[in-house]
C-alpha cells in the first residue's frame, strides 16, 4: 500500500516514518506548502516530494493519502481525496467550523471511499483493552467513565493562535474517547473551563488551559473529562471504566520501570513518557494498520468522518455550556 | 476526658469502643432511644446506660458528648449540649433541612463551646498528608481536585427512607472533603445524578445511586466528585490533587499486601478494606483526638458547625443544578 | 483468659497492651527483674506487679504466661511454666545454646501443656495469605521462596552484646518463615555473612550485619534469605513464593497510601511502617488469638517448641557453612 | 555502517531487522549454514545472501559483523573477524569450553579490533538506570544485589542438547549482569541447582531447570541470583540493588498498563512481555548503538571479550560449587 503524506510538520514526519516502518505500507511521496520542508523530509525518507496536492491526488502510484496539514485544509483535502477515489486518513479535527464539516459531509455523502479520522487513542493497547473488557462484560454494565487528559507542557503562542480553542483542539480527543468508551452517544454536556496556567495569554486569546466536563448518555451513563495544558509529572493519559461487576483502568506508561527507595520515599517511579509521539507510538502504528485493513477489506474505517463530526459537536455543546452556564442538550447543536 | 455517647447503632458502638481505646478518653455513659440497645452496649463496655438525653447533658461526670443518633435529633442535641456547656462531636449531617441548620446556628451563636461535626475523612492519614503536601507548596498552585467516593454495597431500603437523598447523605462527606482540599469555598456547582444500580427503588424513593459533580472556586480551581452506591471491588476512596508543580494522590487501602501472579495476570492485589469502619479506623481515632485537643486547648474544632452547614449548602446547590439543568451559584442557596 | 507477662521491656509492654486490647484476654500481672519497670507497667495497665516469677507460676488467677524476658531465662521459664501446668507463649529464641534447648525439650517431653514460640510473622495477614495460596494450590507446586528481611536501623551496642549473633537473633525469624512457607524441612544450608554497615563494631563483637543464605529441601525446593541490619527506606519484610502455575508476593506496608508526582518522578509512596511493632501489629494480636485457641481447644500451638528448636538448628547450620565455606547438611547439627 | 549478520535463526533475524531499523546501520549481507534460511532472510530484507563466512569477512563493503550462529562457531568467527580487521558483535556465550575461550583470547590478544559480546541486558533502560543510580551514589554504598531471572517457558529438547547447561546458557546473562551491577569482581560462588520442572528430561540430559546462586566480592558485597526455566506469569527479569542510603529496583514491563478490579481483586495487571525479543527490544537496539559508537570512536566495547570470559568462569565456578557442595573461589577456575 503506497501512501502519500500531506504536511511535513512534526506529526506528518512521524506518520511518514511510521509508514516506512509498517510492514504493510510504503511512503509514496510527501507534500508541504512550505517546499523546503517537503524536500527535507522527502530526502531523508528516500522519496520524491510532490509539487502540489493535486499532483498527489492524481498520481497513479498513490494508493491512499494521509493528511497532516493545517486544520483549515483538512476538509478540502478530504473532498479532493474522495473525488479522486483515494482513501484518506486525516488528522483531527476535520475543521474548526461545524458548518464547514457539515458541508464536507454532504459533499462526500454516498461515497464508499474510506475516510478515517486520526483519533489515534482508540488504538492504544491499554485503552483498547479497557474497551474490550467492557464489551466482553468483564465489568458488567458500564456506569461511569473518568478520562484524565493532561498535556505535559504549554504549546507555543503560535500554536494557540490557530488551534481553535482548548476544547476543539485538545479535548476533542477525549470527546471521541468518551464516545468510544461509553459505546453510546452522550446527549447532555456540562462544562467549566478556566485560565489557571497562563491567565494573561489565555485571556488575550479568549482561550482556556484547564477544563472539567460531564457527559451523560440517554440511559444515564456518566462520563467525566478533565484537561490541563500542563502536568509537571508528564503526559497524563488515563481512562477509568466502572461498572456493576468491576472496574478497568488504562494507566500511564513510562520509559522504563525503575523504582527508587530512600529515607524519604518508596517505589518512586520514572516520569511518564513525555508526549503523544512516545506515549501513543503503538497507537499510531495500529491506526495505520486499521486504515490498511479498511481499504483492503472494503469495510468502513473504525473511526470515520461521522466520528470526527460528532466529537466536534460535543466540543460545541461544551462551549455553549461554558458560555450559558447550563447543561446543554447535544441535539441543540446542529 | 469522660465522653458520653448518644446513639447505640453501628456507628455509636464504634465510637464507644474507640473512646475506650483512645489514650485520652474514657466512656462516661451511653444512651439510645431503644433502651435494650443502650443496655447491651453499656454492659459490653462496662458503663451504666443513661435513661434520657437530659440526664446525660446534666451529668457532672460527663465532660463531653458524642452524638450518633438519628439525623433528625442532631440539631436538638447540639443545642442541648451547648446550653449545658458540654462540648459536642456530632455525626454528619447536622440536619437534612437547611432552615433547621440555620436556626441551630442562630441558637448556638456566640457560644464558644466546641461543636465538632463528624467529617472523619479529613483525619485520614493519607487524605491529610495530601492536604498537607498542598499546604507546604509541594505541588505548587492547586488547579484540579478529583474525589472518587464509591460505597461497596447498597444500604437496605430502610436506610434510604431516612437518609435524605444521595447528596445529603453520602456526597456530603465529599463536599466537605472538597472544601478541605481546595482550601477555598466553591462558588458554583454543576451536577448530574442518575438511577443506574436499582432504578425501580430509586424512582420510588425519588433518590439517586450514581452522581457526578463539578465545583468551582472564585479563582477557577476545579473539583470533580464521582459517587456510586456500589463498587464491586470494594470501598473506593481516592483523592487526587493536581497543581502547577506536581500531583498527590491519596489512594485506597487493603487488609494486606499480597500480590498474585498467574498466566492470566500480574500484581493482582487483595480487595480494598470493606467499608468506612475499617477504611477510616485511624481517621475515627484521630477525630476523637482532635476533639479532645480542641476542648483542652480551648481552640475551635478543626471541623466545626459552619463546616457542616457549608457542606449541606453545597448539597442543596447540587440538587438545584440537577433539577434545573444549570450551573448553580452557591450564593443562591440561603 | 488471664495472662501474665514476664519481662517489661519494649516487647513485654507491647504484649501487655495487646492482652488488654484483645477481646479474649486480660492482663493478670506483670513481672520484671528490674522492679521499677514492672511497677511502672503494672501501674499504667491497672494490674499488680508480681515480686518473683515463682509467684506468677503459682498464682491461681493466672491462666497462662507470656515470656518476654532476656533470652537466657527463656528455657527456665518454659520449664517452670510446664511444671506449673500453665500454657506459655515465649518470645524467640528459646536459647542461644542448642544444647540448652535440647535439655529443655527433654525436660518438658511428654507434657501436653501448650508451649508456643513467638514467631509472630507466621500470623501476618499477608504472609499467611501467601502460605494459604500455596496450600490451596493456587501457584501449583512450590519451587522457589525468596525472603527479604531487613531491619530499618542498627540496634545499640548493648543489644548486640547479648543477642547471640545476627543469625540466632534476626535471621531466626526468617528460618522459621522459610520452614512455614516451604511446608517442608530444609536439609541443606549455604550461607555468607559480612560486616558492611559497621565493620569495626561487627569485628570487635565477632558479629555480622549483612547475610545471604540458601536453603534446600530434600526434594529440591529452594529458599533464599537476605538480611541487612539497616534499610534506609524502612523495615523491609517481603516473601515471594514461585510455583509451577504462578507466584504470590507478600509485600511491605505503609502508614498511608499517598503517592507523589513531580517533574522528577511518579507514584512516589510513603516510607514503610517503621519497625516490627507497627508492621506486625496485626500479627502480634493474631498470635495471642492462636495461643488462646490452642489453650481452649487443647490443640498443639501452631508454632510449637520444636519449631523454635528447628529454627535454631538452621542458624547453627548456617554458622557452620559460613565458617567452613561449604554446604552444610542440617542433619550434621545435633 | 554496513553490518553483516552470520546466522539466520530467530535471534539472527531479529538482529538483521534491528540493523535495518537502526538509524546508524544498514544490513550488508546475511549468511547461514542452512542456505535456504539465509536466502529467505536475505530476500525478506532486500540484501544478497553470502555463500560462505569467508566471503563475508573478505567483503570490502562489510564494515562489521554480527555473529548469531551456533555457539560452537562463535570463537572461530571472532578469530576470523579480528584477523580480517572487522569489528564483531558476537552473541553469548563465546564458547561452552573455557579452554577454547582462553585460546581465542590468546589468538586475538593485542588486536584493537572491537569485539563486543551480546550481553544485551546491560543496555536495558531500566537496568542501566539502576546501575547509573548506584554510580551516582543515589543509594550510597552498594551492599546487596538480587537478580531474578526466569524464562516464561521451557525450550524444546533440541535446544537443551546444545545449550551447554542451565548456567552456561541462561545464568550466564545473570553472571554478567551481576558483575555489571556490582561494579566489581565476585571472588566466591555458592550454588544449588535442581530438576523441578521436568525431572526426567533434566536427569537424562544431566541438566537443571532451577537454580539459586550467591556471589561475593572481595569486600563482602553480596549478590543473589535465582533462575527458573519457566514462569507461568511471564518472563521475569528483575534487578534489585540495596545500599546504605536506599534501594533501586528495575522491574518487569508489560505490553500495556490495564488494571482490573473485581470482587476478587484490585489492580490486576496484564502479563509481562512474553520473552527476550519483546522485553529487551530497546536493549537490543541500544546494543547496536553501542557497537557503532565503539567502532566510530575507536573505544573498547562496553561489553568486551573479557566480560564474556569472566561470565563463563563464574558459570564454571558455580558448577564446581554444585558438584562439590562448597563455596568455590573464583580464582580456582582457570
Describe this structure as you would to a colleague:
The structure is a homotetramer of 334-residue chains. The first copy, chain A, is α/β, with parallel strands linked by helices. Chain A has 2 domains: 2-113, Rossmann fold; 121-279 and 303-333, 2-Layer Sandwich (Dihydrodipicolinate Reductase, domain 2). Helix content of chain A is 39%, strand content 23%. Chain A contains 13 helices and 14 strands. The first copy, chain A, has helices spanning 10-21, 35-45, 53-58, 74-83, 98-108, 125-135, 157-163, 166-169, 171-182, 199-204, 276-279, 281-297, 305-324; strands spanning 2-6, 26-31, 64-67, 88-90, 115-117, 142-150, 186-194, 210-217, 222-228, 236-243, 246-250, 258-262, 268-269, 328-329. In chain A, the strands form 3 sheets. Chain A has a 7-stranded mixed sheet. A 5-stranded parallel sheet of chain A has the order 2-1-3-4-5, sandwiched between helices. Chain A has a two-stranded antiparallel sheet with strand order 12-13. In chain A, a hairpin with a 4-residue loop joins strand 8 and strand 9 (222-228). The A-B interface holds A 139-141, 143-144, 146, 148, 150, 188, 190, 192, 194-197, 210-212, 214, 216, 220-222, 224, 226, 228, 230-233, 236, 242-247, 325-327 and B 139-141, 143-144, 146, 148, 150, 188, 190, 192, 194-197, 210-212, 214, 216, 220-222, 224, 226, 228, 230-233, 236, 242-247, 325-327.
Strands, helices and their partners?
4 copies of one chain form a homotetramer.
Chain A: E1 2-6, H1 10-21, E2 26-31, H2 35-45, H3 53-58, E3 64-67, H4 74-83, E4 88-90, H5 98-108, E5 115-117, H6 125-135, E6 142-150, H7 157-163, H8 166-169, H9 171-182, E7 186-194, H10 199-204, E8 210-217, E9 222-228, E10 236-243, E11 246-250, E12 258-262, E13 268-269, H11 276-279, H12 281-297, H13 305-324, E14 328-329
Parallel strand pairs in A: 1-2, 1-3, 3-4, 4-5, 6-9
Antiparallel strand pairs in A: 6-10, 7-8, 7-14, 8-9, 10-11, 12-13
Amino acid at each position: 500500500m503506497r501512501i502519500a503524506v500531506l504536511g511535513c510538520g512534526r506529526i506528518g514526519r512521524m506518520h511518514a516514518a511510521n509508514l516506512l516502518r509498517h510492514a504493510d505500507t510504503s511512503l509514496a511521496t510527501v507534500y508541504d506548502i512550505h517546499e523546503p520542508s517537503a524536500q527535507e523530509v522527502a530526502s531523508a525518507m528516500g522519496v520524491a516530494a510532490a509539487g502540489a496536492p493535486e499532483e498527489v491526488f492524481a498520481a497513479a502510484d498513490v494508493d491512499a493519502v494521509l493528511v497532516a496539514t493545517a486544520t483549515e485544509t483538512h476538509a478540502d483535502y478530504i473532498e479532493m481525496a474522495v473525488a479522486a477515489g483515494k482513501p484518506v486518513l486525516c488528522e483531527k479535527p476535520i475543521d474548526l467550523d461545524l458548518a464547514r464539516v457539515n458541508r464536507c459531509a454532504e459533499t462526500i455523502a454516498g461515497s464508499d471511499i474510506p475516510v478515517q479520522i486520526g483519533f489515534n487513542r482508540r488504538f492504544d493497547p491499554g485503552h483498547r483493552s479497557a474497551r474490550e473488557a467492557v464489551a466482553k462484560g468483564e465489568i458488567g454494565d458500564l456506569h461511569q467513565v473518568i478520562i484524565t487528559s493532561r498535556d505535559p507542557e504549554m504549546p507555543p503562542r503560535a500554536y494557540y493562535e490557530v488551534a481553535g480553542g482548548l476544547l476543539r483542539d485538545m479535548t476533542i480527543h477525549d470527546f471521541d474517547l468518551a464516545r468510544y468508551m461509553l459505546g453510546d452517544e452522550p446527549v447532555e454536556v456540562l462544562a467549566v473551563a478556566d485560565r489557571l496556567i497562563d491567565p494573561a495569554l489565555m485571556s488575550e486569546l479568549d482561550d482556556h488551559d484547564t477544563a472539567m466536563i460531564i457527559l451523560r448518555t440517554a440511559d444515564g451513563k456518566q462520563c467525566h473529562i478533565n484537561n490541563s495544558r500542563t502536568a509537571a509529572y508528564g503526559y497524563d493519559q488515563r481512562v477509568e471504566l466502572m461498572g456493576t461487576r468491576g472496574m478497568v483502568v488504562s494507566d500511564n506508561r513510562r520509559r522504563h520501570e525503575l523504582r527508587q527507595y530512600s529515607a524519604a520515599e518508596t517505589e518512586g517511579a520514572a516520569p511518564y513518557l513525555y508526549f503523544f509521539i512516545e506515549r501513543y507510538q503503538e497507537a499510531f502504528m495500529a491506526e495505520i494498520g486499521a486504515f490498511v485493513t479498511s481499504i483492503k477489506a472494503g469495510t468502513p474505517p473504525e473511526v470515520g468522518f461521522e466520528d470526527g463530526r460528532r466529537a466536534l459537536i460535543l466540543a460545541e455543546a461544551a462551549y455553549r455550556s461554558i458560555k450559558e452556564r447550563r447543561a446543554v442538550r447535544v441535539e441543540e447543536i446542529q
